[in-house]
């Protein structure tokens, strides 16, 4: 009989607390709920403890919201307008009731179907994009209303003896988009609301600093063939000197020509202040949305959750993960019960906050981008006002195939991935994981 190694003991471990994420309700039109559950069991060796379902799509809402009076053809998802199967949110709630012990409602807060340019993001040049600004108070009220309405519908449609509404989830992986052109970095958002927020610090003239070139962002962000290369291991306690050292090591600082360390460290101080302020702005927005959505529902114990990338600083989420886990930093205290993120080499566990692993590289970033592109390609308005409309049929199909391959290649499916991470026994803050319910067959069927 051969020797038995420690990994053998892990082979038959049953990983509990797993959630099935349905990132787009259109997926329910190509595969049944039983098939999704069957694939989950085959991959992870246990039934899903719950399911995550979206409350809106990139192309519109899934139900009417009291207070929104735009024509339904402009704000309701094509799925909702069809009003059959997956397009009927109430029907989906009834579908999952009794099939899962827990239901989580998620929302991508960018709302590309929002009509008013007054609430859309602007980059540092003042150029807008068809996505809303997360820092805008009116948008926070709107997001709270969408999420809160979904909570009410779910509460009414679920059988509480079989299935409970366990949580609401803000997907913040890509709320602050960024781009680059000729070495110049263009971050969002710098609309009137965002500029007013930054002006709350009178010692920090944001626009004067960051509209210059090169500017503090260039220390850690660089244009590349695939978009933007970045340094994201910027911890809350990182010094300006360390920032400059990383920038020089990775070649980013070369854009500053002959600038000495004193000048670069001064720029790094402004960079760190920008990161802190953007983090605080994002935290305040999250808290406001949860407060609006869950008002008068404290007794129901609905968990507040965010999804983000598992890096020290998420450039497109605006959040420093360790700062969220530091209960001593009260000024930027995020009032959430769980944080979902993809495990990385820099951060694979938290100390004070409960967490789950989102089993895909970059968390939900690539998953969101894929289904956003699928919806956009079917939306005549988006095709008309964005560069996507310049792509001919074959080019668009080729781009979609590349995105599908990239997303599926980023999936961390199977128990071997979980074995390499701190277990719930090793860290009680680990309360489970989330598995996106997608595969090559499912996505190909859907598109």
Task: Give the helices and strands, then pairings.
Blueprint: H1 6-11, E1 18-21, H2 33-44, E2 50-54, E3 56-57, E4 60-61, H3 72-75, H4 78-82, H5 89-96, E5 102-107, E6 120-122, E7 128-132, H6 137-157, E8 164-171, E9 178-181, E10 184-187, H7 192-198, H8 206-210, E11 221-224, E12 227-230, H9 240-249, H10 261-293, E13 303-308, E14 313-314, E15 319-320, H11 321-325, E16 338-341, E17 354-358, H12 365-377, H13 380-385, H14 393-409, H15 415-419, E18 430-436, H16 440-446
Parallel strand pairs: 1-2, 1-18, 2-5, 5-8, 8-13, 13-16, 16-17, 17-18
Antiparallel strand pairs: 3-4, 6-7, 9-10, 11-12, 14-15
Characterize the structure shown.
The strands form six sheets. The protein has an eight-stranded parallel beta barrel with strand order 1-2-5-8-13-16-17-18. The chain has a two-stranded antiparallel sheet with strand order 3-4. Strands 6-7 form a two-stranded antiparallel ribbon. Strand 3 and strand 4 (60-61) form a beta hairpin. It has one domain (15-177, 282-446): TIM Barrel (Alpha-Beta Barrel), CATH 3.20.20. The radius of gyration is 22 Å and the shape is globular. The chain is of the alpha/beta class and 447 residues long. The chain has helices at 6-11, 33-44, 72-75, 78-82, 89-96, 137-157, 192-198, 206-210, 240-249, 261-293, 321-325, 365-377, 380-385, 393-409, 415-419, 440-446; strands at 18-21, 50-54, 56-57, 60-61, 102-107, 120-122, 128-132, 164-171, 178-181, 184-187, 221-224, 227-230, 303-308, 313-314, 319-320, 338-341, 354-358, 430-436. It contains 16 helices and 18 strands. Helix content is 37%, strand content 17%. Helix 9 crosses helix 10 (261-293) and helix 12 (365-377) runs antiparallel to helix 14 (393-409).
């Amino acid at each position: 009989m051969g020797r038995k190694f420690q990994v053998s003991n892990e082979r038959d471990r049953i990983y509990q607390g797993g959630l099935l994420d349905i990132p787009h309700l259109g997926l329910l039109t190509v595969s049944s709920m039983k098939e999704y559950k069957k694939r989950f069991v085959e991959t992870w060796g246990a039934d899903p403890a719950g399911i995550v379902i979206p409350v809106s799509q990139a192309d519109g809402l899934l139900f009417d919201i009291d207070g929104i009076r735009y024509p339904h053809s402009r704000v309701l998802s094509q799925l909702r307008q069809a009003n059959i199967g997956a397009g009927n949110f109430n029907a989906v709630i009834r579908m999952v009731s009794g099939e899962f012990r827990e239901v989580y409602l998620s929302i991508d807060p960018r709302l590309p179907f929002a009509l008013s340019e007054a609430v859309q993001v602007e980059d540092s040049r003042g150029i807008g994009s068809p996505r809303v600004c997360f820092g805008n108070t009116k948008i926070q009220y709107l997001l709270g209303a969408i999420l809160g309405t979904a909570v009410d519908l779910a509460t009414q449609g679920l059988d509480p003896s079989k299935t409970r509404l366990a949580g609401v989830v803000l997907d913040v992986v890509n709320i602050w988009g960024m781009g680059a052109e000729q070495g110049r970095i263009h971050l969002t958002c710098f609309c009137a609301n965002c500029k007013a927020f930054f002006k709350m610090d009178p010692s920090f003239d944001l626009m004067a600093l960051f509209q210059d070139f090169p500017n503090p962002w260039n220390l850690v962000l660089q244009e590349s063939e695939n978009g933007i290369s970045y340094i994201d291991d910027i911890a809350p306690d990182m010094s300006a000197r360390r920032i400059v050292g990383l920038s020089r090591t990775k070649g980013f600082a070369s854009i500053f020509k002959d600038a000495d360390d004193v000048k670069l460290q001064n720029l790094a101080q402004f960079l760190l202040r920008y990161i802190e302020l953007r983090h605080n702005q994002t935290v305040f927005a999250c808290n406001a949305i949860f407060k609006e959505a869950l008002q008068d529902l404290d007794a129901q114990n609905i968990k507040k959750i965010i999804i983000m990338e598992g890096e020290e600083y998420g450039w497109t989420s605006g959040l420093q993960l360790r700062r969220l886990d530091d209960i001593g930093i009260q000024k930027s205290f995020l009032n959430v019960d769980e944080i979902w993120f993809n495990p990385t080499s820099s951060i694979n566990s938290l100390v004070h906050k409960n967490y789950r692993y989102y089993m895909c590289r970059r968390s939900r970033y690539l998953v969101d981008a894929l289904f956003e592109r699928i919806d956009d390609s079917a939306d005549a308005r988006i095709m008309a006002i964005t560069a996507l409309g310049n792509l001919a049929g074959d080019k668009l199909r080729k781009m979609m195939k590349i995105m599908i391959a990239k997303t599926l290649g980023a999936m961390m499916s199977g128990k071997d991935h979980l074995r390499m991470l701190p277990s719930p026994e090793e860290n009680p803050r680990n309360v489970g994981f989330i598995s996106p319910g997608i595969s090559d067959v499912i996505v190909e069927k859907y598109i």
